[in-house]
Amino acid sequence: MGSNQSWVTEFILVGFQLRAEMEVLLFWIFSLFYIFSLLANGMILGLICLDSRLHTPMYFFLSHLAIIDISYASNNVPKMLANLVNQKRTISFVSCIMQTFLYLGFAATECLILVVMSYDRFVAICHPLWYTVIMSWRLCLVLAATSWSCGFILALVHAILLLRLPFCGPREVNHLFCEILSVLKLACADTWINQLVIVAACMFVLVGPLSLMLISYMCILWAILKIQSGEGRRKAFSTCSSHLCVVGLFFGIAMVVYMVPDSKQREEQEKILSLFHSLFNPMLNPLIYSLRNAQVKASLYRALKKRSM
Q: What single string gives the DSSP state of each residue in 82-98?
């Protein structure tokens, strides 16, 4: 590991390579999005912690999603913002590997948390009478701990395999941050093991979870169609549609980036997609859940009313 670091001590993050005026404009736009993302996810987290009515398994997992989104954005966006207003766009070797590790860890954990949330909705709609028995707090804690553990163990495997590679130049990472596929292109050795592990990881955290979610939502749809009450159907669809929006955004982009064959023409597109993952997705998640969830809106209304009194 020490000999690898002696080859290259720092990388250069290429970024978008736009005019200085445009990059300053993007700095302010992305800064506003980032601040809004932190505030929105912090609001969701605060409401869930303070309102006892939201102390249910569904909102327990939603609080984990908010924590992941805050951490996910904070891992990549501050350095990206600094590079937009700084001509020296270097990042040390150690910082680059750590950024890659955290990026992969939070991304894999979010995939697994979204699967757990779909299971929670499956139990709530398909087995409502057994919901409190099946979704006990012990099971919720086990599912959350398993998601975090598996996500970061997988990221640690990627980081270890990355550290074993020699990096002797070039130093330019053609991306906004140290994304693993872009870093692997700079290695001075064969990366087939790393590529194989990435494919296996995609099957584990993308294809497998997405298949499970599709099965669970097919069962949910069948259960909803059997509901006699129109109001009951509307409420069930409303509860699940928020989760489906998040799943579609997150998994769709991830599968395009990591499972579609790479090409020179796709490099700029991948930067935009990764930007959406790191900046826009963490901002949209709380908007989707708060705007489409009656309980969250009611909790926010009670909190604002209590403060105004």
A: HHHT-S--EEEHHHHHH
Sorted by sequence, the CB contacts under 8 Å of residue 170 that are 6+ apart come out as 186
Residue with tokens 């097919």: 218
> Mean per-residue pLDDT for 178-195?
90
Q: Is residue 171 classed as helix, strand or coil in its secondary structure?
A: coil
Taking the model in full, what pTM does it have? 0.88
**Residue 6: what pLDDT?**
45
Per-residue exposure over 34-61, b if at least 16 CB sit within 10 Å of its own CB, e if not = beebbebbebbbebbeebeebebbbbbb
- Rounded Cα gap, residues 94 and 46, in angstroms: 34
Which tens digits make up the pLDDT trace of 79-102? Answer: 999 988 887 888 998 999 999 999
By CB atoms closer than 10 A (0-12, 13-18, 19+), residue 287 is: middle
Question: CB of 147 within 8 A of CB of 273?
Answer: no
First to last CA, the chain: 60
Q: What is the largest CA-CA distance in the chain?
A: 69
Q: Tell me the CA distances in angstroms from 44 to 40, 70, 106, 280, 281, one per residue in order.
A: 6, 11, 18, 16, 15
